[in-house]
Amino acid sequence: MNGKILLMLLALSVMAYATAPEWVAKGANAKYAVGNDTTSFTVLERTPADIKIELKILPSSKTYKLTENASAAFGQFWHDVSLLSGASVGSEVGDLAVSDKSAQTIAGREWDTITLQGIVSEAATKKTYDRKSGLLLKQTVDAPGAPLVILTQFDIPAVAGQAQLPPPATQPSPQANATAQPPAQNTTAPSQNATSPAQNETQPSVQNETAPSQPAQPSAEPGADGQKSDGSLCGSASILAMLAFAILGKG
To answer: Which helix (H) or strand (E) is 153 found in, with range?
Structure first.
C-alpha cells in the first residue's frame, strides 16, 4: 500500500474517533476579551451526541444558544486533546499546521501551549490551545478590523488543576556558617572561691512556613434566554465573525 494513502487512512481514522474533552461539561465557563467586549461561553448540557452552549456578549448582554457536535475535532473554545498531544512543529492537525509549542502566560496562568495556523475563510488564522486540556487560549485573524480573542477568566476545575506548569527545580542555598565554631576558652584563672559560669544555650528560631493560597477561579455568570443561532455558528472562525459583527453594531 502506498505510504501516503496509509497516512491518510490513519489520519481519517483518528478524526473519526475525535471527541470533546471531558471538561466540556455542564457548568464549564470560559470568558474571552474580544476588543473592548467580553464573550462568555457556558456549557448548559452535554449528551453523547451534542453540546449545548450559551454565548453571552458583554456589556450588551446579547445571548445566543449554540449546539456543537460532541464528536467533532474542535468547537468554539476547545480542541480534541488526542489530536494535539502527539503533534509536533511542522505537522498538520486537520486543516491547520503546528507553528509553535511553548510555555505562555495567559489569564494569569502559565500554560504548555500549542499553536495551529492556516487559512480559514480566506484569512490567515492562528489558534493557541493548552496542550494538556485543549482549552482555546488565544486566536488571531489577519483581517481588517478583526480583534484579538484571548482568554481572561475560566471556571473549569479540571483545567485549573493542570494549567500551572511545575516550577523549575531550584538548588538549596548554602547555609551560612555551616561549621559550628567552638566557644572561646576562658584563659583567666578563676579565684579560689569563684564558681564556674553557666553555659549559655540558645535555641534556634523556628521559621514560619505557610503554603501560598491558590487563586480562586471566577464562577460562571447566570445565563439569560436570547436569540437562537443555526448550525453555521459552529465553524472554526465563527467566534471571531460573530463578535466582530457585535462590536461593529451589526450583531
So the answer is: strand 149-155
Distance of CA 135 to the CA centre of its chain: 6
* Cα–Cα nearest to 152, from 138, 162, 166, 132: 138
Q: What is the DSSP letter of 2?
A: -
**Residue recorded with cell 455568570:** 221
Q: Give residue 147's pLDDT.
A: 94
How is residue 197 written as a grid cell?
559560669
Q: Rounded to an integer, what distance in angstroms lies between the CA atom of residue 220 and that of residue 51?
A: 17
Domain ranges for the chain, please list them. Answer: 3-164+221-247
Q: In what order do the strands lie in the sheet with 109-120?
A: 92-93, 96-106, 109-120, 123-130, 136-142, 149-155, 29-34, 37-46, 50-58, 62-69, 227-228
**Average pLDDT over every residue of 51-62:** 94
Query: Confidence band (pLDDT; 50, 70, 90) for 201?
Result: very low
Q: What is the pTM of this model?
A: 0.65
Q: What is the pLDDT of residue 163?
A: 65
pLDDT at 34 over 80: yes
